[in-house]
Amino acid sequence: MVTCGGILLLLLLMSAVTIYRTKGVFVLTNTQNKTRATTPTCEKLMQSSKLYANGSFLTSKQTRIEWKLRPDDSRELTLPDVCHLKRYTAAQAGQCLKNKNLLFIGDSLTRYQFTSLSYFLDHKHWPKRFHASLQPCTHISEDGTPACNIQDEPSVCTNIDWKQHWAGYYQSMGGGIDGDVFHGRMETLSARFGDEFDTIMDIMRYTSSEEYGIGPSRTQLTFIMEAGTRGDEPFRGFNFNGCGYNATCRNTPRQYNRLEERLRLK
Prior knowledge:
- The structure is a single chain.
- By secondary structure, the protein is α/β, with parallel strands linked by helices.
- It folds into two domains: 84 residues, no CATH class; 168 residues, no CATH class.
- The chain is 25% helix and 13% strand.
- The protein contains seven helices and nine strands, in the order αβααββαβααβββββα.
- It has a four-stranded mixed sheet, with helices on one face. The protein has a three-stranded mixed sheet with strand order 1-2-3. Strands 6-7 form a two-stranded antiparallel ribbon.
- A hairpin with a 5-residue loop joins strand 2 and strand 3.
- The chain is globular and about 55 Å long.
């Protein structure tokens, strides 16, 4: 059975990140996706037909998929022969994920899916897709506005915008000195030096406001990078302190330096 959360994660792939390759059919087109006018939403199809009720067709190899190019150069996952995926508003996504915990494990692509969804829940809209160095911005969102960040609003989906590179990125994600990007609701246990995988510690957790759940039952998203440790030390848990619940997460330069030193000593 494909749950609301499962469908939302499929939505994340089509709405928050740019996909460059797939085992399905890769279609680059600037035309509007005509399947929206001729097919039901996949949600309605599952509700109206016993044949599709369990949602297994969404991940079946027999279901033809196409990646359609949007005006802002992102790709939209479509199932042209069956249905079209619902595009959730922030309120709908928050309701779908209310009182749920999601764990993301993977590489940098997974991290940016995690930060995109966290940003969507926190800011009520998706982050800009392209970094600030692309000026003038030639990418346009579906609402006609530029799809690039401006210089003083770095992207949560790329580290190259940030002053001090990784240190600036992790500090801002984790609250900086005033709550920063996620208003104090993102706790980071992340540090990095050099470019080797064994110099990375990348663990983050976003806790939603009480709009998406009451007390400790509210929505939480956690990310851990699959190459985030050397691999020879025992796992002792995430060691999060829960600052996201009351929006007090802060990651000052001093705190980040402590994390980096901890990593260097491993």
